[in-house]
What does this fold into?
Amino acid sequence: MERRVVITGLGAVTPIGNDVGAFWKNVKAGVCGIDFVTKTDVSNFRIKVAAEIRDFNDERYIEPKEAKRMAWFSRYAVVAALQALADSGLGPERIRENYRVGVIVGSGIGAMRVIEENVIKFHEKGMARISLLYIPTAIVNMAAGNVALKLGAKGPCTSIVTACATGANCIGEAFRYVKHGYADIMFAGGSEGAITPSALGGFGALRALSESKDPKRASIPFDKDRDGFVLGEGAACVTLESLEGAKARNAKIYAEIVGYGSTCDAYHITAPEESGESASVAMEMALEEAGISKSDVGYINAHGTSTELNDLAETKAIKLVFGDEAAKKIPVSSLKSMTGHLLGAAGAAEAISTALTLKEGFVPPTAGLITPGEGCDLDYVPGKGRQEPNMKYALSNSFGFGGHNAVLCLKKWEG
It folds into this structure.
């Protein structure tokens, strides 16, 4: 028996707010969280800007001794998950020691800084100076592991790594766990803490990052002057549960997840398939599972990285699904214009934004977009968000290196 799945809790640590309230307030206002890099020395780098977490304090969530055993991406994930738990209204007694409560939290890169520091120690001082906690803090599954440990959740616990599609894949798979009865409650999302020399250097070597010296013109999805994405960091987590369970405890419901599509371009290790076909199929899959007409879609949260190839391929994908003329009538916007690219956390933060978009009937802007680039001719909601009270369904797109495509379909909760 299939069950309906709803979102009952939200948690977020982002460059534009360290909780969901601050995050959403700044999304609606089109606030840009990108600034000059402070977490590493970039004096000899071409890359000068990033979307860093600022004023982060996790002491009310994590004991200092615990924090020392976690890399930043794990700490961000734990805070986002604890926020999602508190927001859901589920008491700890419902979670702890419960084999029907699970966690799927992934990361695109994991603990880059921990890896860098220990490799340097090894080369400079020898094997004996490698940290005892090097491996337990560095491996990517430890975001999920630490979240489950902190919550006491004993159900399915896994970590998906699909580059920039990670957060959406984690939520999509968690949705299926609840839908098909493998779990009653799932905490799902993504986390990233990779503003480090080797990450900036590695993405910079690919010419994937913006080299803009103006933070406000660095991440400008769909704009003719876009020159790459901006590296960001943070975490986002949602609480998913069956509608039956949520109703039984009179839970607040943000939105319903009704569809999920996942495909692979099988085309190139970094570049998207140019026609957008594979991404369009993922969108079609999400719509098919939702059982809705294409005309029902009132908003699309774009992957919108601010790279020339991705923005154009995504625009083509949307047109393949909806047709050229109908596609131009659907509001499409990119959260990355404000948060930069949160890599493994991006799809989760954007799912939260999409749920709140439906709940409040407000479409966020693509901040910084002034003049659309060639071939980018959809309604990208430039500069300023707007009210769209009649939206009922929305898609949230996430596409990653390796050709990974993940699409979520959300429905407005109407009681």
